[in-house]
Amino acid sequence: MRVQSLAEGVAVLEAHLKTLPSSPGVYRMLNAAGDALYVGKARNLKRRVTSYIQIDRLPIRLRRMVAETHHLEVVVTHTEVEALLLESNLVKRLRPRYNVQLRDDKSFPYILVTADHPAPQITKHRGARSRPGEYFGPFASAGAVNRTLTALQRAFLLRSCSDSVYATRTRPCLLFQIKRCSAPCVGRIGEADYAQLVAEAHDFLAGQSRAVQQRLAQAMQAASEALDFETAARLRDRIRALAQVQAHQDINVEDIDEADVIAIHQAGGQTCVQVFFFRAGSNYGNRSYFPSHDRETALDEVLAAFIGQFYENKTPPRLILLSDRPAEEALLQEALGVSANRKVELLVPQRGSKRRVIDHALANAREALARRMAENSTQRQLLDGVAQKLGLDGPPDRIEVYDNSHIQGRNAYGCMIVAGPDGFIKNAYRKFSIGGGTAKGRTKPPETPAASARLNELSDAFAPAPLASEAEATPAEIVAALPPPTGGDDYAMMREVMQRRFARALKEDPERERGTWPDLVMLDGGQGQLNSALEVFAELGIDDVPIVAIAKGPDRDAGRERFFMPGKPPFSLEPKDPVLYFLQRLRDEAHRFAIGTHRAKRSKQIGQSLLDEIPGIGAKRKKALLLHFGSAAAVARAGLTDLAQVEGISETVAQKIYDHFQRS
Prior knowledge:
It is a single chain. With 664 residues, the chain is of the alpha+beta class. It has helices spanning 6-17, 45-50, 60-68, 80-94, 142-156, 163-168, 174-177, 191-205, 209-225, 229-247, 299-310, 329-340, 352-390, 449-462, 475-481, 490-508, 527-540, 578-606, 619-629, 632-637, 640-644, 651-663, and strands at 25-30, 36-42, 71-76, 110-114, 122-125, 133-136, 259-267, 270-279, 282-289, 319-322, 345-347, 399-407, 410-420, 423-424, 430-433, 520-524, 547-551, 562-564. Strands 12, 13, 14, 15, 16, 17 and 18 form a 7-stranded mixed sheet that branches. Helix 14 (449-462) packs across helix 17. The longest helix is centred in the middle third of the chain and has 39 residues, at 352-390. It starts with 5 loop residues before the first helix and ends with a helix.
């Protein structure tokens, strides 16, 4: 594809300037493929875009961006604050190449004390806060939540089971035996007493931990004086559990009730942002972020972009403590206030306890970035070693590793993991449900001369079902006519996964400009898996993607792996070679991901019923059918008249159920 010159990019912007308004808004610079290069906001769109045609004032990075610009899209907003909020949303969604990007966008876990049941439940919660109840958090990690939940269960004996499990209990569960639940499900505690436990848990999570501990200590002393040592011992255990929660808080500051602490550190063209969460006077943990940006981007710009994207889908607290001032601080503060529907203060403390917290977060940011840079340096050396050992033209920036997982062909999944200079790229992981030509997500290959020739050979070899007109059959039709992979055929499964992955790549990124094509493909397997992948590459006309298969050695011993590459005899690496350890780690990560995906599917299938496959049969009707007939198998054998006699099953629904089982 022809490379556009800088003058042509300037001409594109000048052409759009004629119709640009002088009002606030958001602009998007797009390349020839329609992908967003940059998303920006402006108080005056015309003035801002004009700055991009003044080439002498632009840094090299922006000159490259202008040269790649083929089109400009604009959205006008009422205010600059609206433009800032829209910009943050679009950057996170479109991930433009020239913007600062916050790649880690996982939701944070909360502790939920429910309010839609007579016996409230305490549980971990992620996602939309739609269930009635009190939410406490956010916590920095699932581990922090789990530790806190375990201690709170010991301290307040609140149930953690689901409502359905609660409704079916006839005797106390194990949690009651190990003193982590008061068993309200079977009446071991009265409703008023359980409500008192809920109130105490609420007070503790809301920041009144000292008052709760004092009340428990007084109750323990009273029980001890009354010689009720069993009750006193239970209260003592609850007090210890509360102390355990506070022991994991690391640092606490008395004059910080609700705040996020954000510290930023730059070195070597890279940035680490450290975020601490303080809620109800307690430290709920911290997390490190490494936003992606150009090496020339200033610290205040990175910090402003980070804050805007970080709180795009989260409610900011009333106070955000910062180590440095972000760009356009007043505008950013106003935008956060609009998002939270209340005042939000950005504060850069210079002294006192708040400054000590900032310094602590800043020290964590420095250490995290130093570790990251050391890991990246080591990773680069390993990638250089991979290129040398496998005879590649250069160190790979994107390695894709494939593995399959199934039990005798059931719940079969193929999985792809991706690694690069910064480690594993988990948002690029993919899973493929393997089920033949009708499998969800299967992509048909484009028609190429190499594909036509190879598919004609395959069509003869596999003897597919006759097509409507074989003389006019396209490669895509031949693939559709081929039989699906058999149950335990690992080679056919690998063939299907590779065909779907690279047919889609040819369709979506034929020019290989989006960074989605691998520099190295690695397969978990031996010569058979390699041959399957090579057949797919031949079908699709791909001959320039390096590929290697890694198989465990005799007795499947780690360290004696054999490598298979096209046109080379199988070879091994030295048992203590760091490159071998690196490739083993990639293979093991693909295996972990494939096994986990397969197990999740299998676990889900175990809990499914034959009735789940019938459209329109919800939980109530399924329960009515099972209560009436005793089992799903009996429902499948039932006649139309018998089905219609079940409560809640009309003649129309009975006919639907009957027809479903007759067809199957």
